[in-house]
Amino acid sequence: MEILNDLLNYLPAAIVAVGGLVVMMMDGYKAKSRLIYQTTMFFLAGALVIATYDLLYQEVGTLFSDMAASGSTAAFGTFIVVFGTFFTVILTHDYLIGVKHNYPQVYPLLMFCTVGMIVLATANDLVTVFIGLETMSISLYALAGIIRDKQLGVESALKYFILGAFSTGFFLYGIALLYGATGSTNLSEIGAYTDGSMIYWGGVSMLLVAFFFKISAVPFHMWTPDVYTGSPTTITAYMSTASKTAAIVALVLILERALPYAADQITSTMAIIAIMTMVLGNTVAMVQDNVKRMLAYSSIAHVGYLLVGLAAGTDLGFTAVLYYLLAYSLMNIGAFGVVAYYEKNHDVHFNNIESYAGLGYKQPLMGILLSVFLLSLAGIPPLAGFIGKYLVFAAAVEAGLINLVIIGVLASAASAYFYLRVMVYLYFKESKEPVKLMKPLRVYSFSLVVLAVLTLYFGILPAGITELIASYFSGNGLAIVP
Amino acid sequence: MFEEFFPIFVLIGISVFLAFVLMLISWLLGPSRPNAPKLRPYESGMDPIGDAKERYSISFYMVAMEFIVFDLEIVFIYPWAVRYQELGFGTFWAVMVFLTILTLGLFYTLKKESKNFSISKAKQV
Amino acid sequence: MIGIEWYLGVSAVLFIIGVIGVLTRGNAIIIFMCVELMLSAVNITLVAFSSFMGDVHGMILVFFVLCVAAAEACVGLAIIIAIFRNNITADINKINLLRW
Questions:
Q1: Euclidean distance between CA atoms A399 and A407, whole angstroms
Q2: C87, CA 20 to 30 Å: which among A296, A395, B73, B74?
């Protein structure tokens, strides 16, 4: 049967969905929180194994009568999303217990959110893009306010919800207009259209606006710092990595398959948005005293670098973007993980940079891990963040966007200031009041160490993964790999 | 285009005109002698108690939300049921999966709801 | 026969009313209703295109939009209720803990 074959190729999503339902029912019938957590991990581990297998061996094709794609970018996106969720769940379990708000509802929500992300990352039709995006966003609204008696969290959930729903409206209008202009919602069939009418351009621009909203590119970034600061820290890590990965992989797919006709206009738009995003993200991050908020602005800046790769619009650019997403997920989950660790030893508002003074010596391992992640975010070799930035900028140079690259490199150099500032506080400032840090759980520090080691590994030996990604696109992406 | 709809516009015009004329006539001709009992809001002959804008318990909103979700799912089942003969048996299982998920959701909300009702009674906003 | 431009016009006007409502109103519930208005406006566009092209895909998308709107309504109302339990207000101008 064809449908069984399709399901077999869609197994990670199916496993996570079934897992989500199981965990939800366990929560309904009041199972122990720890048991729910273990079940979640069991299903996610299964999904991760299969996603890894798919990443390496899945054939390129389409599933469910052209609604979803398999192999190549789809498998890659699925892998990053499941991988990110796996670590998020580990960190979240510990974090929620640490801040004494252990709601087991967080696990089914995370699982459903992951299903949405996988659907989004593997979409081959605007309908699937819409369903995936909404499944993801709706779960994220709830996740942002999961600590429902803390005003801050609920407020961020409301902001996220209103602006997210607003952008959904634009997204849908974009789909409707594109459908009207081209007569189809299938990505390849839209790509076959070569007759720019008003309706077509209206649809393209609405679609792009909605995507800029979701990935928080600059004129549409206002919700990001507030939501990222107010949400539980590990959920912020999840939002800033997995959800962005899924959205950008979908965007890559849409740009590559559906909108080659609009490539020139999209390049110039992306270039302008990328400049604004990089400059604003990095400059505003400099004046932040709240570490979580600083990381929120830094994540905006990183979207700017990703947009540089998308602006290039070549196979090289897309390769660089996918690599960057992997590197960014690793280091950002790690950085937020350490911030969450510092935070759960105090109350939820323990994020001021002053309170980090001298923490580097209290728990040396955690200090070193945070330093590694921050250095990688700053783009210092030999870490994954450096290679990511290098690939993105190299692709842009290849595409002739020299001005964009100059601004990007300058912004990136300026960003070192606020990452290093945190490290200065960690190691070179005396703490005013005695702070007592609990020893982190072994599984917590172990998962962070895994992330740090992978960050280092992909920084030193990126060739394997870049070759894999380059093989997804027709062009030769190997020329620039160091 | 306007010619086609001309009768409808005429109808709308007549009905609006008629409504105003009838109100005007009753205002002009009807006797009007208000006194205190007549002006009071009617509540089965009793003296009115409390404010008309009473707050509902939040639990009602919870039920309303569930209603919205479960109500809309029928949108998917109807087209399937109408075209079942052509779609074949494979879609039967697809819809069964869909219904299973719905049922699980229903059980979950029932479990949560039973708890919710008692809590929201204890500490209403 | 009414031309498709009329449907598109109505839908565009409704969409813009929704957008303006979201941007200018202060009450969370009303903002929320305006968002729903935007989604419904899009539905009109989809159905109009779908019916004029004789292609059923647009109408199926409308089903999904309806369902997503319902799910969004649930989560949105739940969030507003949570806000109300914490702050006793639905006025978003008073919800201002987070600022840069």
A1: 15
A2: A296
What residues pair up with A123 in beta bridges, in sequence order? A68
pLDDT in tens, C15-31: 999 999 999 988 888 89
Q: Which of A267, A296, A291 is nearest to A280 (CA)?
A: A296
The answer to whether A168 and A137 have CB atoms below 8 angstroms apart is yes
Residue A30 in 3-state DSSP? coil
Find which of A3, A131, A154 to mutate to test the B interface (most B CBs within 10 Å of its CB).
A3
Q: Which residues contact A121 (CB under 8 A, 6 or more apart)?
A: A73, A74, A77, A78, A81, A132, A245, A246, A249, A250
What are the pLDDT digits (tens) for A399-453?
Answer: 888 999 999 999 999 999 999 999 998 888 877 776 777 888 889 999 999 999 9
Phi and psi at A471, nearest 5°, equal: -70, -15
Please answer yes or no on whether A165 and C78 come within 8 Å at the CB atom: no
Give the nearest partner residue to A127 out of C18, C64, C71, using CB atoms: C64
C99: pLDDT strictly greater than 80: no
The per-residue pLDDT for range B34-84, each reduced to its tens digit, is 887 777 777 676 776 766 666 666 667 777 777 887 888 888 888 889 988
What is the mean pLDDT of the segment spanning B96-104?
A: 90
CATH of C4-91, one of 3.40.630.10, 1.10.287.3510, 3.40.1030.10, 1.20.1250.20: 1.10.287.3510
- DSSP H helices, A1-63, are 2-9, 11-28, 33-57
**Residues ≥6 apart with Cβ < 8 Å to A317:** A309, A310, A311, A392, A395, A396, A399
ipTM: 0.92
Contact B101/A at CB under 8 A: yes
Neighbours of chain C (3+ CB pairs under 8 A): A, B
Centre a 10 Å sphere on the Cβ of residue A103 and count the other Cβ atoms it contains. 14
Residue of A1 and C62 predicted with greater confidence:
C62
Please, are residues A387 and A309 in contact by the beta-carbon 8 Å criterion?
no
- The tokens for B53 are 């804008």
Q: Report percent pLDDT > 90 for chain A.
A: 54
For A432, residues 6+ apart whose C-beta sits below 8 A from its C-beta are A354, A357
Across the interface, whether the CB atoms of B108 and A28 are under 8 A apart is answered yes
Contacts of B105 in chain C (CB under 8 A): none
CA distance A96 to chain B (A): 21
Name the pTM for this structure: 0.88
Domain ranges of chain C: 4-91
Confidence category of residue B13, pLDDT binned at 50, 70, 90:
very high
| Helical packing angle, A126-144 and C57-87, nearest 10° | 10
